[in-house]
Amino acid sequence: MFVDTAKIYVKAGKGGNGCDSWVRNRRGKKVPNGGLGGKGGDIIIRVDINLTTLIDLSYQQHYSAEKGGGGGSNEKQGGRGRNCLINVPAGTIIIDLGTNCLLRDLSKAEDEVIVAYGGKGGCANINKPAEQGEAGEERELRLDLKLVADVGIIGYPNSGKSTLISKLSNVKPKIAAYPFTTLKPVLGVIKGKKNIVICEIPGLIKNAHQGKGLGTFFLRHIERTKLLIHLIDLSQINQEDPLSAFNTLNKELELYNKDLLDKKQIIVLSKLDLPQTKQALSFFKARIKSKVYPISALNGEGIDELREALVNNV
Hints:
This protein is an alpha/beta fold. Helix content is 18%, strand content 26%. The longest helix has 16 residues.
């Protein structure tokens, strides 16, 4: 199951108590000899490149670190509490729900952040009365995942995105002849001299930027991509519909985040194998200045040229 958001509660370890210990010296006078309490463990969130989802955090929502050890006599300091490590996929954003502030954007392998610090150990009774250890920090966090991919495939539902990613990469998504077959982003890899990570974004529709069709959940996954494949279905009702779909979807990108329009787009026109698409192809090409890549994912026509364009542009 693909899960791209989770709420968790974290509690760092309490510091160990300082020791209130006394000993008599050679003169018979009582002198303090207690040790410091150990520091409580921290809560650390770290990127694990083997993860692609936050599903584990949706099942386990409470995390705590070990408390520090108490000080002992003979100035023995308490041990430090063990840290609690939480692994997440690359692309995870951490938000403190108490302040609604962004704590960190973990986008690269082995990125990590301490989200809650363990409490300080209590003072011993060497120079002043022994003290209890301080409480560790507590926070409620929301983790949002924005997939890290080189290429994102966007398009209307049932435009052929699943078939295309299966032809370009090693992934085998569910393919069916009805809208919204894909309900979660799908990652694949185009293998070659350099591997290219490609992501199929579930179908976007008009008003996706307002959340229609879960649009806002899907749109955030294209924010990190270097390049977009804008897939247009040429087999729509009449020759003007593919152009209308192209303009509408670009408007949705702009309304969600205008910076998305600055991303390079490769325009791919699908279902070239159908006889009724020839007229729509000519109509579309005459009104678009950019280069377009007509393909048939069904019989493989144009796939090699498209794959080469991706390699040259990523």
